[in-house]
Amino acid sequence: MDFDAWIWWLIGAVGLGIPLVLTAMPEFGMLSAGAVAGAVTAALGFGIVAQVVVFAVVSVALIAVVRPVAARHRDGRPQLATGIDALKGRQAVVLERVDGNGGRIKLAGEIWSARALDTGQSFEPGEQVDVVDIDGATAVVM
What predicted TM-score, i.e. pTM, was given to this entire model? Predict the structure, then answer.
């Protein structure tokens, strides 16, 4: 059985696609796309040198262009704050006097124990405070 060159390129593309799926390394997908470009070049009747050059150019171009764009998108995603991290930076209302020793606030619809960040500072009922940290079950406010 005599295989044409384009079939070998497609077999190579599938072979490069397998590690892409197993390792989730996008570089294998870009090499696989380069192999498909080599297959198209072979199907159009170009020689082996042209096929290898097209494979190399397409693969390198995809890696050079797509990787930085993907990295920018991955790093630019906003982080989802959950749990106590979602409470930091929020405002609360003082229910009972809050000082360095303790007090009570209403934070995100719930009543929390609280203490002032600066031990010399105190907040009276009705004041708005900012939550700077959560220490166990106590909100640290300022």
Answer: 0.53
